[in-house]
Automatic annotation (TrEMBL):
InterPro entries: Aminotrans_II_pyridoxalP_BS, Aminotransferase_I/II_large, AON_synthase_class-II, AONS_Archaea/Proteobacteria, PyrdxlP-dep_Trfase, PyrdxlP-dep_Trfase_major, PyrdxlP-dep_Trfase_small. Pathway: Cofactor biosynthesis; biotin biosynthesis. Its EC number is 2.3.1.47. Homodimer. This is 8-amino-7-ketopelargonate synthase. The keyword Transferase applies. Catalyzes the decarboxylative condensation of pimeloyl-[acyl-carrier protein] and L-alanine to produce 8-amino-7-oxononanoate (AON), [acyl-carrier protein], and carbon dioxide. The modification N6-(pyridoxal phosphate)lysine is found at K230. One of its GO terms (molecular function) is pyridoxal phosphate binding.
Length: 365
């Protein structure tokens, strides 16, 4: 295994080496790293709900689930949360998963198989990409948000395959832009496709569902994946769709079947957090509008990418911001093609804090 050290040295030379930072505080708009308090502009805790703790949830349900859902790990509070999430997403049912990665990988590899076609946006999250790779379906990557090219591919290829799946993020995690969901709905109907949407960064940010922005309702050919670990402030994920989809995943999806269930206390805490989402989401939208106005970075989400060029420059700006009391990590390949600062705002940031950050960034550019 001597080659591992050589690979690590190469990563360092190319400014692509990563390391863990030890945080000694609660998650939130301020965090403490190595004894230094920082204003945090990197978190996906968009509504500041990760700090919420309902002790009754943990007293009643404990810290773990003890088994998979299909053995003795299926608790009433799991199903209560699933019913609530399905209502919010306007679908017949939903199913909880232990993480967003497991949900995406599991759903795609379960639904798509040999003789099928998957069309995937080129900027999709790694979990969507890996789900496509694990399936036995034919995979075609289309240019980012290019629905004209997507439709052209389908006009040529659709007739050659049994089933077709269009896979996309709704809010893209590194760029903050939105998929053209209205066009995607029209295309899926025209070409008899199933649309698999990862709404991880849309849920609780742009609305209960990104579909609401486009005045769309999910139908039997719509699968929505969401996460509990971002705006909703806990951990885990869920898949929304028809009642038959839920039954099928329970029986066929390996990342659901062969893993310990989400702790019921987390499901309980999520139900408590959902009560606070509407008010906090309104505050978040105010902060998003404010940052968009002062930075002129166009984003409808809480994610603001600042492309800075080289990996070295991105690291340098991030380090300087750290010295000034701001935590904004550099995002580099292979996560993204172009190195950048990925700035996220939350409902908890004040306008003054947002302004201080932007002034500091502006002085470093």
């Amino acid at each position: 295994m001597d080659w591992i050290e050589g690979e690590l040295i190469d990563l360092k030379k190319r400014h692509l080496y990563r390391k863990l930072l030890r945080i000694s505080s609660l998650q939130g708009k301020t965090i403490e790293i190595n004894g230094k308090k920082l204003l945090n502009f990197s978190s996906n805790d968009y509504l500041g709900l990760s700090r919420k703790v309902n002790l009754e949830c943990f007293k009643k349900w404990g810290g773990g689930s003890g088994a998979s859902r299909l053995v003795c790990g299926n608790f009433s509070v799991h199903e209560e949360l699933e019913e609530r999430l399905a209502t919010l997403k306007k679908t017949e049912s939903s199913l909880l998963f232990s993480s967003g990665y497991m949900a995406n990988v599991g759903v795609i590899s379960t639904l798509a198989g040999e003789g099928d076609l998957i069309l995937s946006d080129e900027l999709n999250h790694a979990s969507l990409i890996d789900g496509c790779r694990l399936s036995k379906a034919k995979k075609i990557v289309y240019p980012h948000n290019d629905t004209d090219t997507l439709e052209f591919i389908l006009s040529k290829e659709r007739k050659n395959y049994r089933r077709c799946f269009i896979v996309t993020d709704t809010v893209f995690s590194m760029d903050g832009d939105l998929a053209d969901l209205k066009s995607l709905f029209q295309i899926k109907d025209t070409y008899d496709c199933t649309l698999i949407l990862d709404d991880a960064h849309g849920t609780g940010v742009v609305g209960w569902s990104s579909l609401d922005l486009f005045e769309l309702r999910p139908d039997e050919r719509t699968v929505i994946v969401g996460t509990l670990g971002k705006a909703l402030g806990t951990f885990g994920a869920f898949v929304c769709g028809t009642k038959f989809l839920r039954e099928y995943l329970i029986n066929k999806c390996r990342t659901f079947i062969f893993t310990t269930a989400l702790p019921p206390s987390i499901a309980c805490q999520t139900l408590e957090n959902l009560k606070e989402v509407p008010d906090r989401m309104e505050k978040l939208q105010e902060k998003i509008s404010f940052f968009r106005e002062i930075s002129q970075i166009q984003s409808q989400s809480a994610i603001f990418p600042l492309i800075v060029g080289s990996e070295e420059k991105a690291l340098k700006i991030s380090e300087e911001l750290y010295k000034e009391g701001f935590f904004v990590p550099a995002i580099r390949p292979p996560t993204v093609k172009e190195s950048r600062l990925r700035i996220t705002v939350t409902s908890e940031h004040t306008k003054k804090e947002i302004e201080l950050l932007w002034n500091a960034i502006h002085n470093l550019l």
